[in-house]
Amino acid sequence: MISQHDCRSAVDRAHTALHGYLKETCNNAGLTITESNPKIQDYWSKLKQEHPSILIDNSESHLPINQIINAIGKLLENLNGIRNNRSYSHPNEQIIGESEAKLVINLFRSIL
After folding, report:
1. Which of 13, 41, 77, 106 is the most exposed place for a label (fewest CB within 10 A)?
2. What pLDDT, on a 0 to 100 scale, did the predictor assign at position 22?
3. What is the DSSP letter of 60?
4. Contact between 3 and 90 (Cβ < 8 Å)
5. pLDDT for the residue 62
6. Other CB atoms closer than 10 Å to residue 26's CB: what's the count?
C-alpha cells in the first residue's frame, strides 16, 4: 500500500498485520481470550500476563523495561483508536495526516 499510495492508506493494513500476529501468538501459546470481540490491546495484555516466555522481573533493575512493556498496551489502545477513527478503515470524516501516518506505521513495525 505504501509504495502504491501513501502511508495513510496503509494504517489499517499495518494494524491488521499486528492484530493478526498477536492473535496467532496467543493461539500458538494456548492462551484463550474470553472477550467476544478482542481488541489488539487485549491480545497484548494476555501475552504480557500469561505467555510462558515473557517473564516480568519485578526487581528494581528491570523497572524501566516493565514500564515500557506496560506502556505498549496504552500505545496499542491509542493506535487502535487512530485506526478506527482517523483511517480509511471506516468512513471517517477526518483522516490522519501523512507524517502522522508514517509515525503510526513505524510504531506498528517496531512492536512487530
Report:
1. 106
2. 96
3. G
4. no
5. 77
6. 20
Asked if the model's pLDDT at residue 2 lies above 80, the reply is: no
Cα separation, 10 vs 6, in Å, equals 7
Name the DSSP letter for residue 87: S
Q: Which three cell numbers stand for residue 32?
A: 484463550
At position 37, the amino acid (one-letter code) is N
Q: Which three cell numbers stand for residue 67?
A: 514500564
**Under 8 Å between Cβ of 11 and 101:** yes
pTM > 0.70: yes
Q: Are 99 and 70 in contact (CB under 8 A)?
A: no
**Amino acid symbol at 33:** I
**pLDDT of 30-72, one tens digit each?**
999 998 999 999 999 999 888 877 666 667 777 888 888 889 9
Residue 96 grid coordinates = 490522519
pLDDT at 5: 66
Grid coordinates given for 112: 512487530
Cα angle vertex 89, ends 28, 95, to 5°?
Answer: 130
Whole-angstrom Cα distance, residue 101 to residue 83?
10
